[in-house]
Design brief:
By secondary structure, the chain is of the alpha/beta class. It has one domain (9-154): 3-Layer(aba) Sandwich (Rossmann fold), CATH 3.40.50.2000. Helices cover 33% and strands 15% of the residues. It has helices at residues 18-22, 25-34, 68-78, 93-101, 131-141, 157-169, and strands at residues 9-13, 39-44, 60-63, 84-87, 106-110, 121-123. Helix 2 (25-34) runs parallel beside helix 5.
């Protein structure tokens, strides 16, 4: 990122739904690999926030504001704080506009008539492939480096502990055959 601070700051506007957010994880990994020192903030819908809580490619996780007052607070908090924005929602004009509103120099998203004006870098949607591939390709065009293409889901330490205790709670003994 030319003309930016020593530690680049990236903001990603993600989706609202759990499955959609899971399919963006290869794109987040690509951003981390392409910008290893970057500070990556992801703005995501409330229902899908937990998908990214333990993701090591995300430094800060922000719930997408729902009210006008919350949107104004987010704008004031983040104005001119980021170098690059990535809008992973192809049909959401508001998410594409956020990068411009925040003063990001580089603003990447999908090339659609209604979002084009807000973006400095655009990519055509590829209908013949899965959305996860489009998200990954967009992240790579924005400077990310491909780091695999499969979705990634990370557990918190509390979730891991719960899963490890589960067999004992069900009366299952280690070393015995379990059929689920």
């Amino acid at each position: 990122m030319s003309g930016t601070r020593a530690t680049p700051r990236i903001i990603v506007f993600n989706m609202n739904f759990i499955g959609d957010v899971l399919f963006t994880t290869p794109a987040l990994a690509a951003l981390r690999k392409g910008y290893p020192e970057a500070e990556v903030t992801v703005v995501v819908g409330r229902r899908a926030k937990d998908v990214l809580v333990a993701n090591p490619d995300v430094d800060h996780l922000v719930e997408f504001p729902r009210t006008l007052s919350e949107r104004w607070q987010l704008l004031r908090r983040f104005f001119r704080r980021f170098d690059l924005s990535l809008s992973l929602s192809s049909r959401n004009v508001e998410r594409a506009a956020w990068g411009m509103a925040l003063g990001c120099r580089q603003r990447w998203g999908f090339n659609r008539p209604e979002t084009r004006i807000f973006l400095t870098g655009r990519m055509e949607e590829q209908r013949e492939r899965h959305w996860a591939e489009d998200y990954l390709e967009l992240a790579c065009l924005a400077g990310g480096k491909r780091d695999g293409h499969l979705p990634r889901f990370y557990l918190t330490p509390e979730e891991k502990a719960w899963a490890e205790e589960l067999p004992a709670r069900w009366g299952l003994r280690p070393g015995h055959l379990w059929i689920g």
